[in-house]
Structures are given as structure tokens and as C-alpha cells.
Amino acid sequence: MPETTQFAGMGGEDSTDSSLQANTVLQRRYKVLGVLGGGGMGTVYQARDLNFPDVRKLVAVKEMLNPTTDPTLHASTLKTFQREANILATLNHPAIPKIFDFFDQNDRVYLVMEYINGRDLETLLAQTKELPIDKIIEWSIDLCDVVEFLHTQPKPIVFRDMKPSNIMVDQFGKIRLIDFGIAKIFDGGTKKHTMIGTEGYCAPEQYKGDVTVLSDIYSLGATLHHILTRKDPRLEPPFSFAERPIQDFNPAAPDLLIQVVEKALSFEPQNRFQSCVEMKTELENLRYKPVVAVANGATKAAQAGTGSETSFFAGLDSHGTIEPRWKFRAEDEIRCTPASYKEMAFIGSYDTNIYALNITTGAFIWKYPTHGGIASSPVVDQNNRLVLFGSEDKTFYALDYRNGKISWSYTTQDKIRGSARIAPEVDAVFFGSDDGHLYALGAPNGRFLWKYQLGEAVRSRPVVANDLVIVGSETGELFSLGLDGKRKWSYRTKRAVTSSPFVDIDEGICYVGSMDGFLYALDASNGFSSWRFRTNGPIISSPVVEGDLVFVGSADGHLYALNAQTSKEKWKFASDKPIIASPVAYQGAVYFGSTNEYFYCIDINTGKERWKFKTDGPITSTAHITSDTILFGSLDKTLYALPLVGG
Amino acid sequence: MDLFRRLFSQANTKTDSPTPIETKPPTEVVEKKPETVMTNPLSTQPVEIPSMPNIADGITRPLPPETVISSSNEHLLFGQATDVGMVRTNNQDAVFSFVSTSRSATQRPDFGLFVVADGMGGHHDGEKASAITANMVAAYITNHIFLPMLNSDDETERVPITESMIAAVQKANADIITKVPDGGTTLTAVAVIGDLAYIAHVGDSRIYLITKDHIEQITRDHSLVQRYVELNLLTPEEASVHAQKNVLYRALGQSETLEVDALTRRLPPNSKLILCSDGLWNLVTEDEIAEIVSTHSNPQEACDKLVALANTHGGTDNITVIMLKIPAH
């Protein structure tokens, strides 16, 4: 059974000296116009066939460098190559490019074939955000058809290297299979024997050098999986498709299509489709009953939506929605994060007040009016029995949390929007001001300890860890200071750092988001950055670490869960509006609000929604979670207290 | 690749045509492991490890008394050893170590860079590939991480270290594809800055983190059998004797698209890090590694000892090992 494979090592070779120059004429017939692609084993040129002087007939000319200098070997490789080219020349199928000519010139071998005006699927995936499902089904059917054609030749041909980059979509939207394994014989039969085909798309048995028609079916499944999920299998361990369920990445994919792909991807060859015809028949069911397929998908989505909520809240509420324990309505937006101590909850509002409420009932206890909106989150200092916060009236306040009486205050040069951090070990409080300074004050009495000039407004909440105070600035820098206010290190991002740093004490890693869209991981002791992870929108949300995962929200609307050691994405959850609030990880779930007005509870391991709760305004407030209550504010002016369930 | 490795070892045995030489194996080896020596056909060959005459004794030494070092002067220590083994005629492994330690007002953390690359491919392609890789990665990381560290006034934006590590490996990969199209190599590199290890890894060379009573493999083998183990198709024991145990699904020199594992680990005080090629871990168990590492305070002695033990167990492949000793602070 002749087997085919593709050029080994396409691309990557930048040595232009071996390439043909434009206007070179081969065989007095093919005038090179330019390079279509190229790499290690040779180059593919676009050329014009001069035998048609009156029309512009374009052809693709593949050039293969012959790497062996041994004359006997050279002759034999050439012969095998020729034989294989002959086989291909006899293949007559609309999805297989026509072969026109084959010759040897200047120690190089050339294959002249049909020029396909189009893009390969890998390029198409990179250039599009979404491909229509019915188009993918069409292509799948056509791919089954052409592979079946190869498999049913008198001497069956195993394509062996099905993958998006070997599939072209021509100007008519039809698929064409390219890169038949002309180059196989040039592999020299050495190391490629263990890696025939392309890693990621290869069937398990192919790794053992054991290739059958069923291996093509696996690779076809792998290719479809890649197209549907947009997750490149070459970047994942082999045979890990089941770890990336299609429905997680492409909710539009009909169940039946998913089942077809999953069957093709069976680990054991005998569990796959036993022929491409079988697979094609299944896919055709999808094509001819599009209404049913769509209905299935819709029903499934609807069921999933209600199913998770009702099962989760079974016995809680007959309507399957979560009911707040209580709500507290302020007179203006609530942007900051609530705090609590024992039976009391504290929240600031843009109505200029800080409120103390009973955490169980929501009953009002006291309020303290300032002269500006409160964006800064209150923090509780248990030792000194204080609740501390800043106001846009430029003043930082410390109140007796029992009665709301002022203990001390400190006025800065500009609005205070950043939240404070207490360092009990030194009895100090740290906070930033729009006047560009980070302030350190004695917590019991507000005594000035030091301030540090950070250039621009400081809205990020400082973190204190390992005798360092780390805080972001609107200049884009992250600063680390000693507890004495001396600079230890700084790290510059491209845009403002409004996000508050988080330090994983065990690992000594500091995580922070930036308006430049990246989440950064830095060595907290010296500021060397370990990695950064790009999201598609500014990060204002503050990261949090739980176990080996780090979570952060982005203005691109996603909440991300990343492996803290490797920065690899474990899952992401899409809300349809920016996520400004910071996630809170608690007992197997992640809680956060979105500016789409919903508050979410997400499974920490799967990234699946457990429940959501609708408010009447965007949520920028981060949740505060106690043993039985979730507190968060919304721009609808309301502080919500939800029961903590299902943790 | 396994075919290649196998082909290669067969070729070696042929050319070597081992004639029994009446050289007594080192006596201590016989005393220590008589069965191994008796059943091992390679034991008739001389054990030639000239660089370490007193170390290839296969015995475990008592812990020498720890010298008390002033903690402020304690720094990263390393040992490094590589050996062709008992079967092959050439060493396709490449190894690189570099440590910088300084004390000044700038409080620069210690920097260490360690690279193990296990080449594969005939016609010397394997050793070329591993050599190119080790040099390329070392040069890139020196230029992009170490030298900027020395110029601490340099306020330009600093690229995250793992990104530079990955870029170094990608560059080496592109280089191999161009320069040694039939060669390939594994690559396991670690840059240590202070007590944080930044790791880049492709293939089946390994890194172990050894603490007081625990040894942990912190890299993941990109081998087919490891994948089978992860999928519960093989037990680790079955994997260690599997016919395909040398087949890698990821290596440098395979394709332009190369996914590099990158991870960051905090190294606890007094912990040790072992980087090694499969020539070590195929023949020396994790327990043996942990034992030798924890009983030798001198990292070089431990490395020599580990190589000697792999050779005692057959030395079927090239053996490379680097050991790092993290200060107590």
C-alpha cells in the first residue's frame, strides 16, 4: 500500500539563495512569478505556463531540493518520487489538484500542478473569528469523499497527514487536498519514522509507525476538532481531544456533529468509523436535516441553562432563581467592595456615605457622611476596632466600627479612590491617592509614617507580603517598597496598573493586571517577571490565586483561570461585557460580577456556570464572602446579600 | 526517534564487537551488587571512567560533616557530569552550566543557567543538534536575561523571563531545522534567579526537585509512553519496559511549530535540583537519585556518583546530570 506524507519541515528556512528568482524560466515553459510557500525541503512557486502565451495560465511549481549527494541514492529517490508522482497523476478527483508536469533540473526536482486560488484552513482559522457550522459540515463531507476516494484506489492510498494546513479552500469555497506525500522519500527514512505525519493530528497507532486508513479517519476527526474548537492540537499533548470538549468552545456545534468527530477520534481504531463512507453518511444526515440539527442545539442549550440552575437550587426555591437574603439600597452607585466584621457589614457609596449594616438582616446600624463619593473599599482593623476608607473628598477616614464615630482622618492632595491595606505586624495602614503618593500611616492614630511618590494617581490597592508593600500606579509601574518606604524594585507595564497586586505567599509570586491587557507574574522578592498572559482587553480586575490556579477578569468580557506555574489557560468564562470586578475563589467556586449586570458563581475546576444572579446595573464591586453570605454592590445603588449555597 | 536510537545502539554494538576483556570490574561493585554484575553481559567490559577514579565504586558514603558556611556568603552550588555510557561510542548529550554570584550594594540575586540536551539522529546529527541547542539557548538567555540583569539601570521594559526562555528554545529549534535537518534533540533548561527556577522543557530529559524527604519530577516527559500513562493505558512500571519508551512526541528539530513547556518553581531553602538525560533516569531510580543527592553535600561528587551508578546498571545510553544545591539562606 503506497503511503503518502507531506514535505518535511515546510517553512522556517530563510535562506533565499537557494530559491529561484522571479522571472526564472524552467524548462523554457514555466516562468516563476513569486513564492507561494516554502521551507526546509524546498519551495512552492507561483508560475505562469508560457505554452499559453495569450492567456495567463497559472500553475504551482513545487521544487524539492535533493539533500543526498550519494549518486545511487539520488537515482533511487528520484525513481521512487517519479513513481509516486505517476500514481498521483492518475488520481482524478475534484478535491485533488491536477498534476501537469514533472522534471529534474539543476539537481532539483520539480512538480508542476494546478494553482489553487484560495487559502488553507489553518490560515483561514487565523484570519476569521468564526466559521459557519454548515460550511464546516460541507467541508467535512467533501473531505470524507476525497479520502474515501484515496482509500478505495486499486492500491489504497493513505493520506497520513490530514490537517488544516493541508486543506485549501478555493475561491469557490470548495476544499482541495494539497501536499500529497511526494516528499516522503526524501525523508531519508531516519528520524521521521517515529513521527510520520504531524504531531497533534496523528492517530495513536501512527506513533508506532502503524498506519492504516483508520489513521486518516482519526486525523480527519482531529482536523475537524481543531476547526470547531479553534484549539490547535499541536500545542496540546497527543490524544487529549477529550479534554477539550467541542461544546465548550463552540456552542453552535450540533450534537450529532460532535458525536461524529468524537467517534472518529476514538483511541482504538476499531471504535472509529470503519470507512470514510460511514463517516460521510453520518455527516450527510446533518446536512439534509439542518432544521432538526439547529433545533437540537437550541434545545440542548436551553436545557443546559435551566438544568444547571434548577438542579443547583433544587429545594431552595420553586422558581429556580436565587433570592437575596436582603438588599440594602444606597442613594447612589456602589462601586467598592463590602467588608464585614462579626455581625456587621460595611459599604461605601457614591452617595458619600459609609454604611454599617447587620449582616444577617441588612438592618441599618450607622452611617458616616463624607464630602465626596466613596470608591475606596472599607477595610476593618480588628486590633484598633476601626473601619478605614478613603473618599473623593481627599480624606482618609478611620471610624470606630461599633458606632461610626470618627477616630482620626488624614487629608491628601487629591481624591482617594484606592482601597487601603492594613499591616497588623507594624500596625500601619497603606493606601494610594490620586495625588500620586502611596501613604503609610499609623493605624491606631493616623500618624504620618512616610509617603512615596509614584508619579501618577494610585488607585491600585497595596498588598503587604514578606515585608514589602507592592502597589500599582497609573504610570503603568508596579512598585515594591520596604515597610520603611524605601524602594525595592519596580516593574513597568505598558499601561496603567489599576488592578491590585496579589501575592501568593507560598510561592513568593506577585500577580497583577495592567490596562495593557496582560496579567503579569513576578518574583515578589526582586520584581523579575516570570510570565505574562495576554487578554483582549484592559485588566482592571485584581487577580486571585487558589490552589495552582490564578483567576482574573478582563475588559474583553472573560474570566480567566490560568495555571500559575505555566500561565496556560485552564478555562475561560465568557460574560458579554467587561469584567472589572475581581474574582473571589471560595470553596470550589469562583464568584464575580460583570458589567453585564449579572453576578456569577462558576465551578473552579470546569469554568462552568453554577448559577447567576441579575442586578439592575453593572457590577464593579468585588464580592465579600463570609461563612454563609455573599455581599456585593451594584451600580443599581444596591448592596446585595446572597445566601452562600452549593460551595 | 526510538528507531534511530535503536539503530544507533545496534550499530554501536556491531562496530564495538565486544571482546571479553579480562579486566576485573571494580571490586566494590561486585561486593555491592553481585547479581547485577553476574547477569549483566556488559560487565565483561572494562569500566572506564578515568575522570572519576575514586567515585565509580557504587557504594553509598556516609554524609561528610557539613561545613558551616556563613549564610550571607552561601550561594548556588552546582555539579555537572556527562558520560558516553557503556554501550555507545559517542556522546550525543550536550550540557551547559553557568553561575554568577555577587555581593554588592545593588543586591543582585544569584543567577544560574543550566541546560541539558539529548540529541538524536545519525551521522553525528544528534550531537550537532544538541550542541547547537545548548549553545543557542545559553547565548540567548545570557543576552536577554543575564546581561540586562547586570545593567539594572536599564529601565526599558523587561520581557518576562519565561518568554525569553521559550524564545531561546524556539530559536534553537529553527536553527536545527535549517542546519541539521535530520537531527533532533530534547532540551531542558533552567534559569535560577535568586530562589526561583524558570524552566523551559521539551522532550524526555528531566528535572527533579529534591527536598528533605521528597523527590518530585517537575517536568513532564513528552514521550508516547508517558502519554499512555497519563491516559491510564499503561502503568509507570509497564512504561519503563515498553518497546516504544524512547518515542517522543515533542522534540526540537521536528517541526517549525514547537510547543515549549515553561514553568516557574520556587526552590525551597536547602533543596536540590537534578537535571538529567534519560540515560540517567532509565537506569537509576528516583529513590536512588534522592539517596545519592541527599547523602552528598558536594554536588560534583553526587553527579559523578549518579553517572557511575548508571554505568554500573548497564550504561546503555549517554548519561548527563547537573545538580544544583540551593542555599539555606
Write a compact overview of the structure shown.
With 647 residues, chain A is an alpha+beta fold.
- Tell me, briefly, the overall form of chain A: elongated
Class based on secondary structure composition and strand pairing of chain A = alpha+beta
Task: Tally the beta strands of chain B.
Answer: 11
Biggest β-sheet: strands ordered side by side in the sheet of chain A: 1-2-3-4-6-5
Query: Superfamily at the CATH H level of the domain at 118-289 in chain A?
Result: Transferase(Phosphotransferase) domain 1
How does the helix and strand content of chain B classify structurally? Answer: alpha+beta
- In CATH, the architecture of the domain at 118-289 in chain A is Orthogonal Bundle
Overall body shape of chain B = globular
- How large, in whole angstroms, is the Cα Rg of chain A? 32 Å
Low-confidence region ranges of chain A: 1-17, 182-196, 289-320
| Average pLDDT figure of chain B | 81
Q: Could you tell me which chain pair has the largest interface and how many residues each side has?
A: A-B, 51 and 52 residues
CATH architecture of chain B: 4-Layer Sandwich
Q: Could you give the order of the helices and strands of chain B?
A: HHHEEEHHEEEEEHHEEHHHE
Taking the sheet with the most strands of chain B, its summary is: 6 strands, antiparallel
CATH fold descriptor of the domain at 118-289 in chain A? Transferase(Phosphotransferase), domain 1
